[in-house]
Design a protein that fits this description.
199 residues, mainly alpha, two-stranded antiparallel sheet, 11 helices, disordered C terminus
Length: 199
């Protein structure tokens, strides 16, 4: 009499891998996620291992509980086989005219102090006159292509602001912590830390 063959492991799913990543970032156990979402921990386990296919609403609910940014919710939806729900709109798009006016107003209100608007990768989108004057006064214009309009790279670049910051070690540590928080929270991705690593 032959012994029963071991049951093959369930195939890992792209959605399950992403869900585990987000749980790890948020430091949430399967049980805690299940309780917050109002489902069984067994169901969360089955979804993560690919034994169960999550419905679209389940994907969105788990993403809400884990506080996943909208852009990354699209990634979860696509990994589960659904169309993306959230649209990314360029700041220059006509639909964002009111948002641009509001940003311009806030930048003007900060004068003469420098103020900037950056995207999730710290690329400069807008700057007021104070910020422009600061860059012109301290950053080497010949190195502009090296920091490429990225605020973090400008801070860390040896021909940017770095030589002029008296408490550089403390400032650099604070900026690195900020970048780590961005990555862990999902606000930033690999493109967020790349500007600093390249400097």
């Amino acid at each position: 009499m032959s012994s029963p063959r071991p049951r093959p492991a369930e195939p890992d799913s792209a959605f399950g891998r992403l869900l585990r990543e987000w749980r790890a970032r948020r430091r949430v156990s399967q049980l805690d996620l299940a309780m917050e979402a109002g489902v069984s921990s067994r169901h969360v386990s089955f979804v993560e291992t690919g034994r169960s296919q999550p419905g679209r609403e389940m994907v969105l609910m788990l993403a809400r509980v884990l506080d996943v940014p909208l852009r990354d919710r699209n990634e979860l939806l696509m990994a589960a086989g659904y169309a993306p729900l959230y649209r990314a709109t360029d700041l220059d798009a006509p639909a964002l005219e009111q948002a641009r006016r509001a940003l311009d107003f806030m930048l003007r209100q900060q004068e003469p102090y420098p103020a900037i608007v950056v995207d999730r990768a710290w690329n400069l989108l807008k700057a007021n006159g104070g910020a422009v004057r600061l860059v012109e006064a301290f950053a080497d214009p010949e190195a502009a292509s090296e920091w490429g309009g990225n605020a973090m790279r400008l801070m860390f670049h040896p021909r940017g602001f770095r030589p002029y910051i008296v408490n550089w070690e403390a400032m650099a540590a604070a900026l690195i912590q900020w970048l780590h928080r961005d990555v862990l929270s999902g606000l930033g991705g690999p493109e967020t830390v790349r500007p600093v690593l390249a400097s």
